[in-house]
Design goal:
heterotrimer; A: mainly alpha; 0% strand; B: mainly alpha; 11 helices
């Protein structure tokens, strides 16, 4: 088992390096950090020249890449082109906020999806099954930003009509959120809608997949053997069917990490949350490639890391894979 | 037991997933000689004898029948055709042009007066027309994305799957790498730096991300087919690689490709809407549903129709496509309940 | 000849499946007995209903598409088809155990072999503790010939070879000393060289448990080797019943005759193989009358074959039954497939 983990770990490293190179090249080729600045009349030619030198903009890509990597590692991604602001502190702050959003949403989604999927499979063609399938289809067809907006409209209408504030529709916290439990509750009220929007998309696809996986396993030969042994139905489902059905879901969740960040981008924009998504949109709008590259690099690292975690979980669940 | 004459029609068994060679109909008159191998035309026996009649259908006909039975998919097909019709004949259907400003009638809720079925926006533009034109753009982009990504994905998947070895390795590592990057973010970067705004560019950018799914599927099919005997037979008889790929292997991938392409259309509509909503996708003067929604956002609370209708249209289109995709998947590879005797 | 009361009696069992193409008549009016200690061979092609009849008896057929329309399955006087789920569960794996065809897929890949075997034991003996159960598991594995049983029990199925997996399956089936052992194509998925070994294991298992064995297969060689009596099934019906020697040397049903003729014989004169012409019928639209008549050389299109379902009746011996209107015409038509080899050994 340990060798398996180590091997996966070692494999991740070249992937990380390759990803960093692709990110850098991709962004650098396309962008011109000076474009925005060149349009500002108050910035002199000398300043532009200085910036170009500092950012090594006249050198070939591989060299610039090396500089960038060095800067990323030693100086925590350096500073922005405009305003010379350190990138990392901002990035770290928004990372924490987005983490709250994404982790909560994904945990809830996986948990509920497993419940729904398993129950739908075990009670196939029941009312529950049909309703769950309908909701899944709806969930998969609904654009997340639209759902977010509709929810906002709904909550604000309820507030105006009945003066009941169910949830907040913007921001991470109120002006004076307090401490401890009060802070937590306030934050929860603010994050409730965004978490709901993010989770819905995940639940829709995960639950359908879980149902399909469970159905396939229930009809498998080894489940038939378990029944033939005389085990009671609960044991058959939980000990034999469920664990096997869970395995492919791990892969699906792992593949979905990239989509999570996309969802976060959109949700944070609609709900005005100070998170990574918001940060990213700002950086893109500013036309400064360095925060963008830093963002992409951090995100890629997180995704690769979680893929590694998924691999380990997979190895725990499925002994066949450990001896690869 | 004496030799007998048996007048019977040999039904053709379609092989799982494969294109069976042209079925031979006809009775087999049995002499004291080798019996014709099922599926191979022989010099004996192509006379049509009457006897026990068994209807044989080709693999595609079975699929069609199964699809037609799928009520939800059929209903969605009707809806989708309706949507296509609206999109194509947008000019005839929409009562106003996309940009027609009518300052007399601003911010009107949906009404039948003046044919403003979906109301008007802050500049008095008829919303129904705007939604209709926006729908056309979205559908167009989604179809182009599906086409392009399918072409790219099939090519890459076929090459990887057919040649295997290091070619496969490199191509798959590359695909995996693309998957480790957050999709929407990459699209946004591409949109900003390579310029978006007009539908074709947006479609190309989207296609460059969506090909990975199809590539995987095609590669999978090709990898499994490589080992099959008829591929080896074709090679042994001297067919070139291209011919083998095109004639023998590609037809087997049509099913999964079609299903996947349908899903790509739905995903593309949603993604393009998201891009346009964020302002990085299709931009004015081109109409876009996502942009309509973001435009309406500020007034969304009171003028609810500004946000609701474009979104509803997206949901309906995506729903219909997903149902059709589901129906296609059921039709093309049904999970048979195993009934072993 | 079998004596005494049958341990298992199936009467008029009829099972149908509802599919989108129509109703599949998988098993139609099947009746047969199984006597203690004997090996009963059930022969038939795929689609003949041989597996379905047994699985439905044990409640292993999914009942949305499947339905037991009528019939009885008496085990020691109790009708299995009328038992409550819990009672049936007690019998499944305890009194009546099954060995399935494909050992690759019949074992759960994420649990160790030992865990799966001890599960079988403790399902029917809840008071047995883990350690005790494990010891018994090792014993069983040794009995079926798995080397290093104590080490192997802690391994996962994918670490076993195909033959070893089937041995483990057999061990699992005999764990609770069943009275009836059902082996459904136990060697079909295995290499020929392994098949012989597995047969030996099966024989050892029979000796150990004194169980009646129902051996379901399409392999006539297996039947010749192992069976005492034989049932031949076609299109969901029983067409012939008899002891193994008689069936091989004196088949009294055109289908059985066809089967015997189709076996390649060493030293034979013919150059060509002689399969039974045509295809087995669709179980959705079973031919009226005798299901075999479209392919039957004996029938020659006679009307009775096309309209009347032939009943299973004794032909020339009390224990030799055949479902053919004109079975008598086969008397004197010895096909001589030569069970000579076995006779000599016996």
């Amino acid at each position: 088992m340990l060798t398996y983990i180590l091997r996966r770990l070692l494999y991740s490293i070249p992937v990380l390096i390759a990803a960093s190179f692709i990110i850098f090249s991709f962004v650098s080729i396309a962008s011109n950090p000076l474009a925005f600045l060149q349009m500002q009349p108050q910035i002199s030619q000398e300043t532009l020249q200085l910036i170009a030198e500092r950012k090594h903009l006249d050198e070939p890509i591989p060299v610039r890449y090396a500089h960038w990597v060095k800067e990323a590692v030693t100086e925590r991604f350096g500073t922005t082109t405009i305003g010379d602001r350190p990138i990392w502190p901002d990035l770290r702050r928004v990372m924490g906020n987005t983490a709250q959003l994404i982790i909560t949403a994904e945990l809830i989604a996986v948990f509920l999806a497993i419940l729904i999927g398993v129950y739908s499979a075990v009670r196939q063609y029941s009312v529950f099954d049909y309703s769950a399938t309908t909701f899944s289809f709806l969930g998969l067809a609904t654009p997340n930003f639209w759902l977010a907006l509709m929810l906002q409209v709904l909550v604000v209408n309820i507030l105006e009509r009945y003066d009941i504030r169910l949830f907040y529709v913007s921001g991470l916290s109120s002006v004076d959120p307090g401490t401890g439990l009060q802070f937590f509750l306030d934050r929860a009220q603010h994050l409730a809608l965004p978490v709901f929007v993010l989770a819905t998309a995940s639940i829709a696809s995960y639950s359908r997949f879980m149902r399909a996986s469970m159905l396939e396993v229930i009809n498998s030969d080894y489940v038939r053997t378990a029944r033939a042994k005389g085990l009671n139905e609960r044991k058959v489902i939980m000990r034999h069917a469920f664990r096997n059905a869970l395995i492919p879901l791990v892969t699906l969740v792992a593949l979905g990490f990239g989509g999570l960040f996309g969802g976060a981008i959109v949700t944070e924009t609609v709900f005005s949350l100070d998170g990574m998504g918001f940060f990213f949109i700002q950086a893109l709008g500013d036309g400064d490639p360095y925060p963008v590259m830093a963002w992409l690099m951090i995100t890629a690292t997180i995704i690769i890391f979680f893929n590694l975690v998924a691999d380990v979980v997979y190895g725990i669940l499925d002994p066949r894979v450990r001896y690869d | 037991m004496t030799d007998q004459r048996f007048d019977e029609q040999q039904p053709q068994e379609p092989s799982a997933g494969g294109m069976a060679p042209t079925p031979t109909f006809g009775g087999v008159t049995q002499h004291s000689g080798p019996i014709a191998e099922v599926g191979e035309p022989t010099e004996l026996s192509l006379t049509w004898e009457s006897g026990v009649e068994l209807k044989t259908r080709s693999q595609w006909q079975y699929a069609l029948i199964r699809f037609l039975r799928h009520r939800l998919a059929m209903g969605s097909l009707v809806v989708l055709l309706g949507i296509f019709a609206v999109a194509i004949f947008a000019e005839q259907i929409a009562p106003y042009a996309f940009d027609d400003i009518d300052l007399e009638n601003i911010n009107a809720p949906p009404t039948t007066a003046g044919n403003h079925f979906f109301g008007t926006d802050m500049l008095g533009r008829d919303y129904f027309s705007r939604v209709v034109f926006g729908m056309r753009t979205s559908v167009w982009v989604a179809l182009v994305v599906a086409l392009l990504s399918t072409a790219i994905g099939t090519a890459i998947g076929a090459i990887a799957g057919y040649f295997g070895g290091w070619v496969d390795n490199i191509l798959m590592r590359f695909t995996d790498l693309i998957l480790t990057l957050p999709g929407l973010a990459i699209l946004l970067v591409a949109a900003v730096y390579f310029g978006a705004g007009d539908p074709l560019r947006v479609a190309i950018i989207l296609a460059l991300l969506f090909w990975t799914g199809i590539a995987r599927i095609v590669r999978g099919v090709f990898l499994s087919l490589r080992e099959k005997e008829y591929v080896e037979a074709a090679k042994a008889s001297g067919s070139g690689d291209t011919r083998i790929i095109l004639r023998h292997m590609l037809p087997n991938t049509v099913g999964p490709i079609v299903v996947n392409a349908t899903l790509v259309v739905a995903a593309a509509i949603l993604t393009e809407a998201g891009l346009s909503f964020l302002g990085f996708g299709i931009q004015p003067p081109n109409p876009a549903l996502g942009k309509l929604i973001s435009d309406g956002q500020s007034e969304g609370l009171k003028l609810w129709w500004l946000v609701t209708f474009p979104g509803l249209v997206i949901v309906i289109i995506a729903l219909a496509i997903n149902f059709i995709g589901d129906g296609l998947r059921d039709a093309l590879d049904p999970t048979q309940r195993r009934i072993r005797a | 000849m079998p004596s005494g009361e049958p341990v298992l009696s199936i009467r008029d069992l009829t099972v149908e499946f509802t599919t989108e193409d129509g109703i599949v008549h998988a098993v139609s009016g099947v009746s047969y007995d199984v006597y203690p200690g004997e090996t009963l061979g059930v022969v038939g092609e795929s689609g003949s209903g041989k597996s379905v009849s047994l699985m439905s008896m044990l409640g292993l057929i999914p009942t949305p598409p499947g339905k037991i329309v009528r019939g009885q399955a008496l085990y020691r006087g109790r009708d299995l088809l009328k038992l409550k789920p819990k009672e049936l569960r007690d019998i499944r794996g305890g009194d009546i155990a099954m060995i399935f065809q494909d050992p690759m897929t019949s074992l759960n890949p994420v649990l160790t072999v030992g865990e799966q075997l001890s599960e079988a034991i403790r399902a029917h003996n809840p008071s047995v503790r883990e350690k005790e159960a494990f010891d018994r598991v090792v014993e069983l594995l040794k009995l079926v010939g798995v080397p290093n049983p104590d080490r192997r029990a802690k391994q996962y199925p994918h670490e076993f070879s195909g033959g070893m997996r089937q041995r483990a399956m057999i061990a699992m089936a005999i764990a609770n000393s069943p009275s009836v052992l059902i082996a459904d194509e136990p060697t079909t998925a295995l290499d020929v060289t392994i098949q012989a070994q597995i047969l030996e294991v099966l024989k050892a298992a029979q000796r150990e448990t004194h169980a009646a064995t129902i051996l379901v297969t399409h392999d006539l060689g297996l039947i010749a080797e192992m069976a005492d009596r034989v049932i031949v099934m076609y299109a969901g019906r029983v067409v012939e019943v008899g002891d193994v020697m008689t069936i091989f040397s004196n088949p009294r049903h055109p289908y059985t005759t066809g089967l015997m003729e189709s076996i390649p014989k060493l030293g034979g004169q013919d150059e060509w193989l002689r399969p039974i012409p045509g295809q087995p019928p669709s179980l959705i639209s079973v031919p009226p009358g005798c299901a075999f008549h479209p392919r039957c050389f004996l029938s020659n299109g006679r009307q009775r074959c096309r309209t009347e379902v032939p009943p299973l009746r004794p032909i020339d011996e009390r224990d030799h039954l055949s479902a053919c209107h004109f079975a008598e015409e086969l008397i004197g038509n010895e096909s001589g497939t030569g069970l000579r080899g076995r006779e000599e050994v016996a």
